[in-house]
């Protein structure tokens, strides 16, 4: 009896604890995505493209790290640290396979406000000039990186807190026009911040409201102080970079290895500056001394956290929004999913942990992600390989960058922002799809230019919500989730058999960013449920027929009779009479629904479409230019399906 009781207790204990172990494993896989893709990594197929992409990414990380550190008003070496540690953390916790986390122009601009406010350049003479024992830099430089690290730490804590509060579900408020306008405006700010290096002008730090215009006013007032040598070298660098990158893009299918023009330009400019002694001869500003090695970790100064709350919120929101847009774009392009809340955790830890290693705030950058696309990267292994090369630069090659001219570095940064700046072309698309989206884009861009990226982002979100709230009362119904279903059985005139079932779904709400994803999910659920029901009915009827036939012969179902018959094509009609208004996100989702249904062998037709909706769908990507998609009424769509079915049957009879 005692043994039986013990056995029973052990079984109960195992039942109680086995699910907990499984839940813990699932939790680890969900929160540590590297545990999902790393065991399935294919060395033969992925290692070579990841290695090539890692080499090119390392060049970008080094150049951007140096430039964005200077943009953040700290010593360039801290940009190298900021290109190393965040990339490692994101590779472990992030879900974007083509997202390269590191130094970022927008977060650097925001943190520079705190650095210049708390440790201004005028206080350099008040600090001791003796080098510290940590990295061989002055106390002034260490105070500055302390403030930047505090901004990174607090910004990461805010992102982790948003992950705990599950605020990733609120990202639907960040519409594409708002993100596009904010990133374009911030890129314009970055280009403006590099003007002093492109022209070789000594300029005080200018920030605050309308600081963008004050910078250009200062440049025009001191136009005579422009160094011609710096201007010519900047123009030459920009022309070479644009020309070679365009050639790489044109011939990337014919050549296996893309020319690393950034690396070649850095080596050539540094060598020329060293040989001709441009720093003294022409007065060109160079990067300067870069210490070797990585210092031991140290906590950021906690006494300044209360003074950098504003910048920390800006870093947390702007960095996350820009990074999430790149992760979602990568997931959409390569057909995988990204958890918005997990990205909060990944970027939060990518800011908190590196802040102990003297890193400036980090985020993903469009230029680096585009580089991973063009070089054929497969996984985050490319980012880890780039980290190995960055370590080599930190410990061996870093001091050789002393002679790199700042005007060349600024040229590399400006050309690297091309992807953000050409988003001006989206204005035509927004104007043709929804003029209100066009107005939101323009106003968000203006606010970003006049104030800052975080202010522009906040304005865009508030403006979008206010406009949608103002437009919704004009809708026929306030119900966003409910969709009316009707089923029809169409019978042929020739044999009287039941034709394929046609499902008609009436959309009784506007299609906007608020309900676009829900509309897609609900429609896919209906299609999957209908396919499952039809497949079950087909299998039952087929089995009943086979059973009846075989019972007359031998009483058993043979293997040939048990095989399911191929399913016929399904038809779906979307009644769009309730779509009283729409925006770009809604129209894009409607086109995406059409393509998804087409891939599932579901013929989709649209009824009661307004002329503006048809025009908007053409600009977002015409679903089918050969066959008619939109019809005046549901009956017209049914007649089209019926006539096509009869034509296909007639063609089958003629072939027989």
UniProtKB/TrEMBL annotation:
GO CC terms of this entry: apical plasma membrane; basolateral plasma membrane; lateral plasma membrane; recycling endosome membrane
Domain STAS, residue spans: 492-641
Location (main, coarse): membrane
Pfam families documented for this protein: STAS, Sulfate_transp
InterPro entries attached to this UniProt entry: SLC26A/SulP_dom, SLC26A/SulP_fam, STAS_dom, STAS_dom_sf
GO term, biological process aspect, one: carboxylic acid transmembrane transport
Keywords: Anion exchange, Cell membrane, Endosome, Ion transport, Membrane, Transmembrane, Transmembrane helix, Transport
GO molecular-function term, one example from the UniProt record: chloride channel activity
Cellular localization per UniProt: Apical cell membrane; Basolateral cell membrane; Lateral cell membrane; Recycling endosome membrane
Catalysed reaction, written as an equation: bromide(in) = bromide(out); thiocyanate(in) = thiocyanate(out); chloride(in) = chloride(out); oxalate(in) = oxalate(out)
Spans traversing the lipid bilayer: 66-93, 145-165, 203-220, 226-245, 257-284, 304-327, 348-367, 379-397, 402-424, 444-469
SUPFAM superfamilies: SpoIIaa-like
Topology of this chain in the membrane: Multi-pass membrane protein
Heme is among the record's keywords: no
Family: Belongs to the SLC26A/SulP transporter (TC 2.A.53) family.
The name this protein goes by in its record: Anion exchange transporter
UniProt source species: Lynx canadensis
């Amino acid at each position: 009896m005692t043994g039986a009781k013990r056995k029973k207790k052990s079984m109960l204990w195992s039942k109680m604890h086995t699910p907990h172990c499984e839940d813990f494993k699932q939790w680890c896989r969900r929160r540590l995505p590297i545990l999902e893709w790393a065991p399935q990594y294919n060395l033969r197929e992925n290692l070579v493209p990841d290695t090539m992409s890692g080499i090119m990414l390392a060049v970008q990380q080094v150049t951007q790290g140096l430039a964005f550190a200077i943009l953040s008003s700290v010593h360039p070496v801290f940009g190298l640290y900021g290109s190393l540690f965040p990339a490692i953390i994101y590779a472990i916790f992030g879900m974007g396979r083509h997202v390269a986390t590191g130094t970022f122009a927008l977060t650097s601009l925001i943190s520079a406000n705190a650095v210049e406010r708390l440790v201004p350049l005028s206080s350099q003479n008040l600090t001791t000039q003796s080098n510290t024992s940590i990295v061989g830099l002055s106390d002034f430089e260490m105070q500055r990186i302390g403030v930047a690290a505090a901004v990174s730490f607090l910004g990461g804590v805010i992102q982790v807190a948003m992950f705990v509060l599950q605020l990733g579900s609120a990202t639907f408020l960040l519409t594409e026009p708002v993100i596009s306008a904010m990133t374009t405006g911030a890129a314009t700010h970055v280009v403006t911040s590099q003007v002093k290096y492109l022209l070789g002008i000594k300029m005080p730090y200018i920030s605050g409201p309308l600081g963008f215009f004050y910078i250009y006013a200062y440049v025009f007032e001191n136009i005579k102080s422009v160094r011609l040598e710096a201007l010519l070298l900047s123009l030459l660098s920009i022309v070479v970079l644009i020309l070679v990158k365009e050639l790489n893009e044109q011939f990337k299918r014919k050549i296996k290895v893309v020319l690393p023009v950034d690396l070649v330009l850095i080596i050539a400019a540094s060598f020329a500056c060293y040989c001709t002694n441009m720093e003294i001869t022409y007065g060109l500003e160079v990067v300067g001394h870069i210490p070797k090695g990585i210092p031991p970790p140290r906590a950021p100064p906690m006494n300044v956290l209360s003074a950098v709350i504003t910048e920390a919120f800006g870093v947390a929101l702007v960095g996350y929004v820009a990074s999430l847009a790149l992760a979602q774009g990568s997931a959409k392009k390569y057909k995988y999913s990204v958890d918005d809340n997990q990205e909060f955790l990944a970027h939060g830890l990518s800011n908190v942990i590196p802040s102990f290693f003297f890193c400036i705030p980090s985020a993903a950058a469009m230029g680096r992600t585009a580089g991973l696309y063009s070089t054929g990267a497969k996984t985050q292994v490319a980012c880890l390989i780039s980290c190995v090369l960055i370590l080599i630069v930190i410990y061996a090659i870093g001091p050789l960058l002393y002679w790199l001219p700042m005007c060349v570095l600024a040229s590399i940064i400006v050309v690297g922002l091309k992807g953000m700046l050409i988003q001006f072309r989206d204005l035509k698309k927004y104007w043709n799809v929804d003029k209100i989206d066009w107005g939101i884009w323009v106003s968000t861009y203006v606010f970003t230019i006049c104030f800052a990226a975080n202010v522009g982002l906040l304005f865009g979100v508030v403006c979008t919500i206010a406009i949608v709230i103002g437009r919704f009362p004009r809708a026929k119904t306030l119900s966003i989730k409910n969709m009316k279903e009707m089923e029809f059985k169409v019978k042929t005139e020739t044999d009287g058999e039941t034709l394929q079932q046609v499902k008609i779904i009436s959309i009784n709400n506007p299609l906007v960013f608020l309900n676009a994803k829900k509309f897609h999910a609900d429609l896919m659920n209906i299609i999957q449920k209908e396919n499952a029901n039809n497949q079950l009915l087909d299998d039952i009827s087929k089995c009943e027929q086979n059973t009846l036939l075989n019972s007359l012969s031998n009483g058993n179902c043979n293997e040939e009779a048990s095989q399911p018959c191929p399913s016929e094509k399904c038809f779906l009609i979307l009644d769009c009479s309730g779509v009283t208004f729409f925006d770009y996100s809604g129209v894009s989702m409607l086109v995406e629904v059409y393509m998804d249904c087409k891939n599932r062998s579901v013929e989709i037709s649209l009824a009661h479409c307004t002329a503006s909706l048809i025009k908007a769908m053409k600009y977002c990507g015409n679903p089918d230019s050969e066959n008619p998609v939109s019809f005046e009424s549901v009956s017209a769509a049914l007649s089209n399906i019926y006539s096509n079915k009869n034509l296909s049957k007639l063609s089958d009879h003629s072939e027989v």
